[in-house]
Amino acid sequence: MEQTFLMVKPDGVQRNLIGEIVGRLENKGYQLVGAKLMTIPTELAEQHYGEHKERPFFGELVEFITSGPVFAMVWEGENVISTSRLMMGATNPKESAPGTVRGDFAVTVGKNIIHGSDSLESAEREIALFFNKEELVAYAKDA
Ligand code: CMP
């Protein structure tokens, strides 16, 4: 079954939005198979956002994501990578539709509440960066 990496960013945690976000994904029908509240070390943040290394906002991005606790999660279900991105909304909250997480709760592109893997390849890479296999659970088939 497809899995993705989602993370409530420091702004989302400070604003007590973990429950709201987890609730939306549970209501949709996805299953939470791994989760941890953690403060990201700088080295892990630089690896996670490696593809943005040359961008002018890279320093700001790493500084923000390491500035306070995040809630890192692995979610599982049919088409969870693309559907959870639809539920998150566009990266820039100026363009994210009402009804999406960013459309409902964010104003600026830097502090946009949530991160989600954008492809199968990124999902596999990001899950492996944040979780050991033993930290992920399997649900009973008839649950
Ligand atoms: P995310 O999905 O976590 O992946 C990369 C992040 O870079 C993105 O969300 C935004 O929060 C952030 N980002 C994109 N553009 C900018 C920008 N111009 N200034 C600051 N942060 C940005």
TrEMBL record:
Residue numbers carrying Phosphoserine: S122
Organism: Psychrobacillus insolitus
Keywords carried by this UniProt record: ATP-binding, Cytoplasm, Kinase, Magnesium, Metal-binding, Nucleotide metabolism, Nucleotide-binding, Phosphoprotein, Transferase
Keyword Transferase tagged: yes
Catalytic activity: a ribonucleoside 5'-diphosphate + ATP = a ribonucleoside 5'-triphosphate + ADP; dZDP + ATP = dZTP + ADP; a 2'-deoxyribonucleoside 5'-diphosphate + ATP = a 2'-deoxyribonucleoside 5'-triphosphate + ADP
Domain Nucleoside diphosphate kinase-like: 1-138
Cofactor(s) this protein cannot do without: Mg(2+)
Keyword Signal: no
Family of this protein: Belongs to the NDK family.
InterPro entries: NDK-like_dom, NDK-like_dom_sf, Nucleoside_diP_kinase, Nucleoside_diP_kinase_AS
SMART domains recorded: NDK
EC code: 2.7.4.6
UniProt xrefs under Pfam families: NDK
MF-aspect GO terms: ATP binding; metal ion binding; nucleoside diphosphate kinase activity
Gene: ndk
Phosphothreonine modified-residue sites: T91
GO biological process, one term: UTP biosynthetic process
Positions annotated as active site in the UniProt record: H115 (pros-phosphohistidine intermediate)
Known function: Major role in the synthesis of nucleoside triphosphates other than ATP. The ATP gamma phosphate is transferred to the NDP beta phosphate via a ping-pong mechanism, using a phosphorylated active-site intermediate.
Compartments in which it is found: Cytoplasm
Name of the protein in question: Nucleoside diphosphate kinase
UniProt-annotated binding residues for ATP: K9, F57, R85, T91, R102, N112
A single GO cellular-component term on record: cytoplasm
Main location: cytoplasm
Record note on quaternary structure: Homotetramer.
